[in-house]
Design goal:
This protein has a domain of 63 residues. The chain is 29% helix and 30% strand. It is built from two helices and three strands, in the order H-E-E-E-H. Strand 2 and strand 3 form a beta hairpin. The protein is flat.
């Protein structure tokens, strides 16, 4: 069956499906072997400092749950306030 709807309808449906998938995944904690790393995600640079301490970058914790063979099973990316022991402890 082919649906000939508008772009806005398709985009809206995609966003709703992605939100439901995210909510489902958020309800399942990672388990097994978990590897994590610190990640900075930045937008467009509009002045200010560059590098890891830039106010233009958002700090995340990226965690991947793997099986015994090291293959990824699930992933989680969470925004945190900064890469301090207290923030990582709250995340964990």
């Amino acid at each position: 069956m082919i649906f000939l709807g508008s772009y806005n309808t398709a985009w809206s449906m995609k966003q709703k499906i992605m939100q439901v998938m995210k909510e489902r995944d958020d309800s399942r904690p990672l388990s097994g072997i978990i590897q994590l790393d610190d990640v900075y995600w930045d937008g467009e640079w509009h002045g200010g400092s560059r590098g890891r301490g830039s106010e233009n970058k958002t700090p995340y914790v990226a965690a991947v749950s793997t099986n015994k063979e090291g293959h990824p099973i699930a992933m989680s990316m969470t925004v945190i306030k900064g890469f301090r022991l207290t923030e990582i402890s709250k995340w964990a």
